[in-house]
Amino acid sequence: MVEELDVIEDKKLGYCLGNVIKYVSRVAKKDKTKEVEDLKKARWYWAEEFMS
């Protein structure tokens, strides 16, 4: 199993993209009621990275 932190550090993704990886990976692992919230957070960090 690939750990999110390993991917973030290996690819040197930085803060915003690291959080995108973190929140997207949670969708499959955590409480289903938090899926939309986690995807919204991932989208916010994506926008911060590429739209700012």
UniProtKB/TrEMBL annotation:
Pfam families: DUF3310 (PF11753)
InterPro entries membership: SaV-like
UniProt protein name: DUF3310 domain-containing protein
Superkingdom of origin: Bacteria
Phylogenetic lineage: Bacteria, Bacillati, Bacillota, Clostridia, Eubacteriales
